[in-house]
Amino acid sequence: MPLFAEKFEYYLSHDADQAFLNAMNCSVIPQSLRNAVLDKYKTWQHNKGDAYWASQSAISQIDISTSKAVEEIVG
Question: Which domain of life is it from (predicted)?
Fold first, then answer.
């Protein structure tokens, strides 16, 4: 998921999860591969998902705050 989220610039877990699951429902991808990827995704989500999305949220807020500060300074 981290690579997927970074590649497609997702910062919110809900949006990324929905897009990822939609991609995994594509019938072009063989069912066995989809199942393997979804199993790895569920394991990642259970073990590391919350920490990853908390980090992404913090990074996003820092980026927003930095942009606003630059606008105020530069005018």
Answer: Eukaryota
